[in-house]
From TrEMBL:
Ligand binding (ATP): 8-10, 16-17, 148-150, 188, 197-201
Predominant place of localization: cytoplasm
The protein's name: Tryptophan--tRNA ligase
UniProt source species: Sphingomonas ursincola
Superkingdom of source: Bacteria
Motif ('HIGH' region): 9-17
EC number(s) reported in the record: 6.1.1.2
Catalyzed reactions: tRNA(Trp) + L-tryptophan + ATP = L-tryptophyl-tRNA(Trp) + AMP + diphosphate + H(+)
GO process terms (BP): tryptophanyl-tRNA aminoacylation
Length: 334
């Protein structure tokens, strides 16, 4: 079993990242036996598909490392690094470009969403983004990849690339990874629109809870979150068609390790005036300690760089045999 996952170091971690992915990273890390490490990385090579100033990029990598550690990633047990420190990612991505098909990439919904109407003006990097993601995963023979629902298609593509490479070159080089997607929190929605994903790129900060938000900001965002005037039903199935209500109940259930049915039973007959303060309270209780640790860690550049250096060294050594195997299979002499 090998657990691996990544996150783009662009801007703040938000509640969607935390409940959809990072919380599971920490759980899987904590359940791992002492000999096997999990691999978690900052996808800074992916982040060049979004324009950013150089200084911001440097800062964002360190801050995302600090945020992951604040969430519970332990750099002594897990391998924490950024892609740019491990050239094998870019190298394998190039080799896999010979295997991935344009038709496969054309079907990627994330590319369609991000490129929008101006496809011709989108960067090549944005188009081949999923091939780099496949390289990230296949380099380490990952078996379990904890991600939110929006990454499922990229995982399927990774399997297709791995299978075609193994078949085309008659090797058993790449392991086929499985996505590990949480049941309740796979898709946390915007607080302003229950049909849109909570995301870093939403222009309205009121649409998301950032892990750096103060207690007051969290309470205010929940108070202003879009809802409906109906009281809560006693079973979650009755929430159908009430996207915003379903999202908030799902967040509460995930944070309290409960189920939407149990949360409905608890608040049945009450309106959002009663439910929202309870939700704000569990959010504040969960996020406050993370925020406090993050603030302590984020400015210690030397310590964060040392952690990423150490992680990258380990990552390079684990990635090397797979990369060599790919060159070898292709007949590329080094
Ligand atoms: P990224 O940086 O967009 O998001 C990081 C993780 O957070 C999850 N996530 C969500 N989960 C639930 N609800 C939401 N609203 C929500 N928003 C984000 C994402 O599913 C993801 O798990 N391409 C990836 C980074 C990546 C990667 C990889 C992941 C690069 N290489 C290899 C796994 C394996 C991305 O942009 O995630």
């Amino acid at each position: 079993m090998r657990v691996l996952s990544g996150i783009q170091p662009t801007g703040n971690l938000h509640l969607g990242n935390y409940l959809g992915a990072i919380r599971n990273w920490v759980k899987m890390q904590d359940e791992m036996d002492a000999e096997s490490a999990c691999f978690f990385f900052l996808a800074d090579l992916h982040s060049i598909t979004v324009h950013e100033e150089r200084e911001a990029r440097i800062r964002n990598v360190r801050e995302m490392a600090a945020a992951l550690i604040a969430c519970g990633i332990d750099a002594d047990r897990s391998v924490l690094f950024n892609q740019a420190r491990v050239p094998a990612h870019a190298e394998l991505a190039w080799l896999l470009n010979g295997t991935a098909r344009i038709g496969w990439l054309n079907r990627m919904t994330q590319f369609k969403d991000k490129a929008g109407k101006n496809r011709e003006g989108a960067s090549v990097g944005l188009f081949v983004y999923p091939v780099l993601q496949a390289a990230d995963i296949l380099l380490y023979q990952a078996t379990h990849v904890p991600v939110g629902e929006d990454q499922k298609q990229h995982l399927e593509l990774t399997r297709d690339i791995a299978m075609k490479f193994n078949t085309d070159f008659g090797v058993e080089l790449f392991t086929l990874p499985d996505p590990y997607i949480p049941k309740e929190s796979a898709r946390i929605m915007s607080l302003r629109d229950g049909n849109a994903k909570m995301s870093k790129s939403d222009p309205s900060d009121m649409s998301r809870i950032n892990l750096t938000d103060t207690d007051d900001e969290i309470a205010q965002k929940i108070r202003k979150a879009k809802t409906d005037p109906e009281p809560l039903p006693d079973v979650a199935s009755a929430l159908e068609g009430r996207a915003e209500a379903l999202n908030l109940i799902g967040i509460y259930a995930t944070l309290t390790e409960s189920t939407p049915d149990a949360v409905c039973a608890q608040f049945a007959g009450q309106g959002f005036g009663a439910f929202k303060p309870a939700l704000a309270e569990v959010l504040v209780d969960t996020l406050r300690p993370i925020r406090e640790r993050f603030v302590e860690l984020k400015d210690d550049e030397a310590a964060l760089d040392a952690i990423l250096d150490k992680g990258a060294e380990k990552a390079r050594s684990v990635a090397a045999p797979t990369l060599s195997g790919a060159y070898e299979a292709l007949g590329l002499m080094r």
